[in-house]
Each structure stands twice: as structure tokens, then as C-alpha cells.
Amino acid sequence: MSTYPTPQRHHILSVLVQNKAGVLARVASLFARRGYNIFSLAVAPTEDPQFSRITIVVDVEGTTLEQIVKQLFKLIEVVRISELDPQKSVERELFMATVRTDGENRGQIVELANIFEAKVLAVGVDALTLSLEGSPEKLDDFEELLRGYGIVELQRTGRIALPKLDREAHSRAVKGKAS
Amino acid sequence: MSKKMSGASSLVQSLESAGVDVMFGLPGGAILPAYDPIFDSKIRHILVRHEQGAGHAATGYAQVTGRVGVCIATSGPGATNLVTPLADAAMDSVPMVAITGQVPSVAIGTDAFQEADIRGITMPFTKHNYLITDPKDIPRAIAEAFYIAGSGRPGPVLVDIAKDALQKETEFVYPKEVSLPGYHPQVDPENQAIKDAAALIAQSAKPVFYVGGGVIKANASKELMQLAELVGAPVVTTLMALGSFPDSHPQHLGMPGMHGTVAAVTALQKADLLITLGARFDDRVTGKLSTFAVNAKVIHADIDPAEIGKNRYADVPVVGDLKRTIAALIPAVKAEFAKNQPDLAPWIASMNKLRATYPLGYELPKDGSLSPQYVIERLSAITGPDAIYVAGVGQHQMWSSQYWHFDEPYTWVNSGGLGTMGFSVPAAIGAKVGRPDKTVWAIDGDGCFQMTAQELITASISNIPIKVGILNNSYLGMVRQWQEMFYGERYSEVDLGGGIPDFVKWAEAMGCVGIRVDSPEEVAPAIERANSINDRPVVVDFRVEEFEKVFPMVAAGASNDDIILPPSQNERREYLR
């Protein structure tokens, strides 16, 4: 079973904010007081240290995405908000899990990790720690398969996303550079 | 040009550069460095008796002048005492800048003496806020705070400054302009939206102007008058909009909402178009939202795009400054009317019949005791529409909205959205400071008065001669009314203990003139005497009938269709169908 909500209810907002103390608290406080649901949230500085990008997956139920965007935009330090259409964006997430192993099934787990191109980060007597970077859907599948072995600890980063590049515009830009 | 000085001097010079002429405050440890240069500043500082008073006074000042009101307090309890006025100002879109001292930056986060995270506390109800720990950031923060507070949809901004930032030496450079990459309020409405709105107006047989406080904030009363007379539709003005359109105008149907006039409430219910200008479909106006104006299309004009579509779908959203929006609508509507002007006569006739059938009215108590509505009516008639009227929250506020006569904007101050008891005395002080040329009357309930009355000491000592009329029924009257109507007359914790305190003695102890009024014939002489005193504040204790209720009324959560009429009008109910 996927841990993600149905696509109709879940939207990715890419929020460019001024990189100032407290800006994450403002965003989180707004969601809390207006009763909006954050499904996942990732925040880090951008290529310009004056700005950070917050990638929020919102679970839209009982409130409109439009209202969430409008209220977010009222925050003075929010500079730009883009809604990323999953069809037109690239998404990545990082996953780490410690899985119990009795020694006999260690090979199976490592084989599973190899199939998914996951990494083995640490090996213990009765456990393995694995990491996987990829699309959230791929991570969902991996997580589901690992559950059968017994997950001791699990940490996911929440997704980050950027718009897919427009191929024509991109190829023009590449041409421009070449000439 | 830069000059070396302390952060505190930089703060005071920044406030002077922002054009501040008065601020309301109370000093304390963390803000102490700022009070030294305040001692020499040309800015008038009014020393309040409680920081809440400073905040509401800043609001009163802002609401009658249209300028940014300023209050200042120390860290910890000083700052938290500003929380209520800041929340109040956020709800009513009041331009305000609050300055607070903070513990020294090294002590922040250590639970130091008088430390409170006021920036964190006030995030939900400030338009923006700052924590300043470096003195060089002070001028920019002040410049930005005033720009943010006064532009777009106005609101409160808090600037919290660590004590060491006030003490350290810095260079003072006041920015010529502010640059905020994430803040660009849209002032000019889009042409297509104006055209769509005008087209909808020209297609509607039953339009109503639903006018909110945004019209006053945008100083757009003149434009509203032109547009309203051009369209000819009935006008309703919300609690926050009283005075934006004259009560005396034949198109004016009064205030809509929980205690609005039958005509105003019903006009919205039966309209086919709401021309919504700077209003926000508050629950006190709409009643049960799903039954509100079900046949109406909606034009919603507001400077804040987040208000549009928040509570009610807008067929035509118009984002922009209302003065410009209404001015743009006038020629657009004229152009549409040249092609097709709907006949509003049947609609206007039906609304006029409603107004005539269900006027605001009350019955005088049979035992000769004093009617609170009568007091309000006489006060308005004797003092006139030029004065400024300030109300607290409760029955007296609603009677004031109903029986005071408003013809001009900026003459009515009240706590609308937050409903803050204790608002009126300090807000009246701020209003009088902002408009010393005007007579300022606060009307208060005896419950409200006891929350902030000590600010009358401020008024006496700082020569701010306001007038306060207490509608004293010895009850938390509005709560008592709800208990009578909805809780089987079980009067739980609403009796304020009749006779204590003695408001006349209390007033005199605070340096005011105190007058007691027990009977209807004493009302006019007391008001005239109060109006003639201008060298000190006056408090008139109107001992009014205890069990009077506010009508009409739409019960909380009920539909506007189920408006409760005054008992004397019940037999006329069939006209509403």
C-alpha cells in the first residue's frame, strides 16, 4: 500500500523564500493555524544564498489549493510560488532504513537492494542500513518490500522537485552557447 | 549622509524619518535605552498605564487619521500586553507599528528575566514582524515596517529589538526606498475585471452594494458615492464601513449582519448581484454561509487577493486598490448603461417597503427607567455627525452602530473582527490625539469600562479631553442576552454587582468630571454639559434598564432568513416572505 495520498489531493508547491531566520516557522505556523495539511516538507538554500526553496507536498482536503497559495503569498518573505505538476516536473527523495536480518535472509535483502540500486550503508550482526535515492514512487515500492523483513528505523527526506526542462528552449540555449 | 550614534538614537531618528508625530507606550528594562533619546525627541510620547492601552490608542489614532499608529513597550510582559491590540489590529486591517525591547541578544533563548518570544507569539496576527539584534539593521527595519503596515491591505507590524542592539554604536542611514522582493501589492485593477464587473452590473435587476471597511481604508467614499448614484442600487455598510456612505442617503439601507437592519440583511439575501467592495463575507454578516444570498452573483473587489474566494465564490474577482477600482468602474458602467440600463425600480420599491415596514426601533421602558437606545439617539442628535464615536464590544456597540448617525468616514472607531472588550477608552484617547479638533465620545458598557478604565488617568494627565458614556446595566449585557434567549434565562456569571464600583467617584479619582444619569430627562443636560467641558475628560454613568436586548438579531450559526425581529414587529413577519 502506498503511503502517499491519491494524486488528486496532493500537490507540490515549490516556494522560493528569502533566506531569513524564522521563515520556516512562518510557513509552518500559517499551515497550522489555517488547518492546512503538510504531507512532506524539504527546505534548503538555493544557488543564490539570499534565497531558500521550500518544497511542500500539500494534502488538499477541505480547502482549495488556490487559497493556500494566496495565504502563503501574503507572507512578506515568500518571493515566488510555483505549483509543480507531477507530469511536468522531476522529483527526487532520499530514503534510509535499518532492516532486521537473521543472517539467513541477508543475501535476499542485499539482492533486493541491488535490484533497486540502493546502497548498503552499514552492516551489523543482525541488521543492515540501506539508502535509496529516487522518485518517491520507487521509494514507496522499496519500502513495501523491505517491510516483510522488519524495518527497525526509517527516515525519508520528503520530496524535492524542479520543473522539467522544456526541450526546445533548452536545445536552443545549448545551440546559443555553441555558436 | 551617515552619522554615528547609539542604536537607540538610530531607532528614534528612524521613527522621526518615518514621519511619526506621536507614540503611545510604557518603558521598562529592555527598552530603556530607547527612552533616553525619546526624552529629547520631537515625537510626542504618551505614557499609558498598561501596554494594552498603548496598542488600542495606536489603533484609534490610525482609524481616524488613516496614518500608521505607533506603540512601544518593553520585553516580556510589556510585549505580551500588546498581543491583544495587535490581534485586534490584524483583524480590522489597522496600520500599526509596534516597537518592543528584547533581552540582550546573548540572553535570547535562555529564559532570561522578562524574556518572551514576541516575534514567535505574534507571527499569526502581524502582517510581518522583525527581531533585530544588529543595530545597523534598525533603520531599514523601521522603514520597511512603516511601508508594510500602511500599504496594500494595512496591518500591524512588530519590530522587536534586542537591548544590546539599542546600546551599541552604529551609523544611522535611513533608506530612501525599501525593496522587498516578496511584497508587491497589486493596486491597479485589471481592465478585463473592470469590464466584466460593469457588464454584470448592467445585467442585474436586483443589485446591492455590499460595502466593507476597505472603502474607508482606501479613502474611497467620494468614488463610492458617484458609483452608487450612477447604478442606483441599495447600499449596505458593514460594521467596519459605517460612515463610508451617508446614513442619510436614500439608497442606504443600513448595516447588514447579526444585528443589522431587516432591510440590509434581506437585501443581501434577495439580491441577484452583490457588488462587494472591501468586505470579506465575515460570518457575522453572512450568517449560515450556505444559505447566504443564494441567488446572487458576486463581484468581489479587494486589495487582498486571499479574501477573494475565501468564504464565498466570486463570479468576478477584482484585485486592486478600491479607490482606483471604483474610479475605473464608473466610466465602465456608464459605457454599459449606454447600451443597456436595467430597470431597478421594482427592486428599490420592494427594499423601501422593507425599510418602512421594519425600521430600527425600541420601546421605552414602562417604568420610566432609562432606555440605552434613547441615550445613544440623544447623544448623536445633540453632538452631531462631525464628532468621532468610539465603541467597545457588546450591546452598547451594536446600539451605537444602529442609533448613531454617520455621514462621514473616519468618524467611527470600534473593534470589529476580534471583538475586544476594553477597546473604547484607550482607542478614544488615540482618536482624540489624532484629531484634537474633533469631539470624541466613547460609549462603553460597564463590563468593558472596567477592563481598561485606568487609561482615563493617561487622558487626564496628558490633557486628552475625551468623553465617555457608560451604558451601565450592571450586566455583561450581550452575554446576558444570549443566556436569556438561548440558555433558558440561566444567568451564569454575568451580574456585575449593581452599584459597585461608583463610576462617578472613580472618574473623579482619575481626574475626570463624573456625571450620573438615572432618568430620561437628565440625558440631554448631561450630554450638553459633557460637550461643554474641554479641559479634562468626562465620564457619564448612564444607569440604563437592565434587561433591554439588541434587535433585530440573527442567532449565531442561523440563516439570515431566520432573522429575529423586535417583539413589537413580530406581527409583520409575513412581509419578509
TrEMBL record, chain A:
GO terms for cellular component: cytosol. The keyword Metal-binding does not apply. Gene3D superfamilies: 3.30.70.260, ACT-like. Chain A, domain 2. The keyword Nucleus does not apply. Keywords: Amino-acid biosynthesis, Branched-chain amino acid biosynthesis. InterPro entries: Acetalactate_synth_ssu (IPR004789), Acetolactate_synth/TF_NikR_C (IPR027271), Acetolactate_synth_ssu_C (IPR019455), ACT-like_dom_sf (IPR045865), ACT_dom (IPR002912), AHAS_ACT (IPR039557), AHAS_small-like_ACT (IPR054480). One of its GO terms (molecular function) is acetolactate synthase activity. Pathway: Amino-acid biosynthesis; L-isoleucine biosynthesis; L-isoleucine from 2-oxobutanoate: step 1/4; Amino-acid biosynthesis; L-valine biosynthesis; L-valine from pyruvate: step 1/4. GO terms for biological process: isoleucine biosynthetic process; L-valine biosynthetic process. Residues 12-86 form the ACT domain. Belongs to the acetolactate synthase small subunit family. This is Unannotated protein.
